[in-house]
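Pipeline run #58 for the internal structure catalog. This entry was flagged by the ingest filter as a single-chain record with no existing model, so it goes straight to prediction. Upstream metadata was stripped on purpose; only the residue string is passed forward. Reviewer on rotation: M.T. Logging verbosity set to normal.
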Amino acid sequence: MISRRKFSKTMLMAMAVGGGVVTAPRLWAAKSYEPQLTDDGLHTQPWFMQTFLELADDLQEARGEGKRFAIIWEQKGCPYCREMHYVNLTRPEINEYIQKHFGIVQLNLWGAREVTDFDGETLGERELARKWRVHFTPTIQFFRASIERGAAKSGADLEVVRMPGYFKPFHFISMFEFVKDKLYEHTTFQRYLQEKFAALEAKGIKPEVW
């Protein structure tokens, strides 16, 4: 039997693609990794999570699919957000890696949708951004792999890594690898990058970093 949450999520996704009918242009866009444009003027990916923005439930849903949970903050007219979508996420190896390993919810830095924080407090998007000290876009917050029910901790307490701004493709995918493998538990992102550079150079590979 389908759960209420899963049924409602299916309906949300159906509305997002025009009443449940995926047209040929949308199929082409998905295959070519082109982003879509929301009514709020944000660039978005068709595989971003469509949810009721109850973050504890969203994390649990991602976990149930064997994925890590992240929130990406964007805003209308943000040139670096656009570059992230059109440069980084149009690369198949990046797009497919993130789809496979992460559940991502997109929030609007100046939005008014109600979001329920992990601690149970419900705030508008812009108020939540202030609470979590998110000041510019794009910002990506990565959260613990699991949380205890009733822990009453805010997302600011459950965040394990933050991507503060636009990262070029090499550093961008490296951050997702860093989180997926839980390397933050015993090293820094900077050290991980240095070790990754050294390993690639040992194989005669010069990373594309610009």
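catalog note: The first strand starts at residue 36 and ends at 37.
catalog note: Residues 32-183 form a domain with the Glutaredoxin fold (CATH 3.40.30.10).
status: ready for reviewer M.T.
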